[in-house]
TrEMBL record:
Keywords, alphabetical: Membrane, Transmembrane, Transmembrane helix
Keyword Transmembrane: yes
Natural source organism: Riccia fluitans
Pfam family, one: Methyltransf_11
Name this polypeptide is given: MPBQ/MBSQ family SAM-binding methyltransferase profile domain-containing protein
Length: 370
């Protein structure tokens, strides 16, 4: 086989000579080492020649058989599911604390964070370029589309939506009145409907919207599967859901702080949640700040854009039990204070990570892995 130069999320594997089998084994070994705990084994492999690669990975322990197809799509990388996952849940152990992955803690977390969210959090984790890249698979290409932005917060993602969709057709929903107050101040969003609500119990009728968008919200849902089931319910047949969220770290220190703070799903979990809810044509597009150079081992608060299409009218075929969390139930104030304090301290680590990666990008020569 001729010498090849293949880029694996900013890391280059060069000079692969010999038989195709040996080259592919080298790629698989490097991908497995670099991706760490990523459950698919191989992840997206890019080449300067626009290489398309397809593989099948069956893991008996997961009960999953997933046929994936990778495509280059802009600066991101797209993973398409060819058949659905089945079998046991891939959720990580419940013993992992995730102190802010509860609605009450998240409410107060954003009570304070909303003051600086657009100025401190977005520049390091959710830039305008990332937003445009992440929304591209949602096909927001018609001004007359009815769109719900669930967990819309300060409206940063909504600003990307109303570039192509009439604001009067867009509804922003969030449980935080403090975040929504920031959205109401933005001139391009003046015609949007802005309401308080729960992502796991949406106040919209079945088959209501053409598009469902949720960015930076799933990490606070006590039951992500329920929220994605709701996304399926409210979309019209033929409509599309686009969920943008974190990815789980593989670096041990980043993984520790991520799991203390909130939910960082694996890519496999996103695929399983969408598939079980009833979505077809489920795809993942990887996103990230340019100065990360594709590095994902520290996790990303905005790391992927997941899309799926609703093919049948009505509710999701998935049956679910009662809600995981009752926000109206009384809580112990000391337990709440402990959870909130520890979770907030853990979140500070993810203020430092993008600064570290930005500095590392400045001092590391271009073309070298960081």
């Amino acid at each position: 086989m001729a010498s090849a130069v293949v880029s694996f999320h900013g890391q280059h594997l060069s000079g692969l000579l010999g038989s195709r089998d040996r080259a592919m084994e080298s790629l698989k070994s490097e991908a497995s080492t670099w991706a760490g705990a990523a459950p698919f084994g191989w992840h997206s492999l890019r080449s300067s020649g626009g290489l398309r690669m397809e593989w099948i990975n069956c893991q008996a322990s997961r009960g999953a058989a997933l046929r994936m197809n990778t495509e280059r799509s802009g600066s991101g990388s797209l993973l398409g599911v060819r058949c659905s996952a089945s079998g046991s849940s891939t959720a990580r152990p419940a013993s992992q604390p995730r102190f802010i992955q509860h609605k009450q803690e998240a409410f107060w977390f954003y009570r304070f964070l909303s003051v600086v969210y657009d100025h401190i959090i977005n520049p390091g984790h959710w830039t305008e370029d990332m937003r445009e890249d992440a929304l591209e698979p949602a096909d927001l290409n018609d001004p007359n589309l009815t769109v719900v932005d669930v967990g819309g917060g300060t409206g940063f993602t909504t600003l990307g939506i109303v570039k192509t969709v009439d604001a009067k057709n867009v509804t922003i929903l969030d449980q935080s009145p403090h975040q929504l107050a920031k959205a109401k101040e933005k001139e391009p969003l003046k015609e949007c409907k802005i309401i308080e609500g729960d992502a796991e119990d949406l106040p919209f009728p079945t088959d209501y919207a053409d598009r469902y968008v949720s960015a930076g919200s799933i990490e606070y849902w006590p039951d992500p599967q329920r929220g994605i089931k709701e996304a399926y319910r409210v979309i019209k047949p033929g409509g599309k859901a686009c969920l943008i969220g974190p990815v789980h770290p593989t670096h041990w220190l980043s993984r520790f702080f991520a799991d203390v703070w909130m939910l960082f799903p694996t890519e496999e979990e996103y695929i399983e949640w969408f598939t079980k809810a009833g979505f077809s044509d489920v795809k993942i597009k990887r996103i990230g700040p340019s100065w990360y150079r594709g590095v994902r081992r520290h996790g990303l608060i905005m790391g992927c854009s997941v899309t799926g299409v609703k093919t049948q009218a009505g509710d999701s075929p998935l049956e679910m039990g009662p809600k995981a969390e009752d926000t109206k139930a009384p809580s112990n104030p000391l337990v709440f204070a402990y959870r909130f304090l520890i979770g907030t301290i853990a979140s500070m680590y993810y203020v430092l990570v993008p600064v570290y990666m930005w500095l590392k990008d400045l001092v590391t020569p271009k073309g070298q892995p960081i």
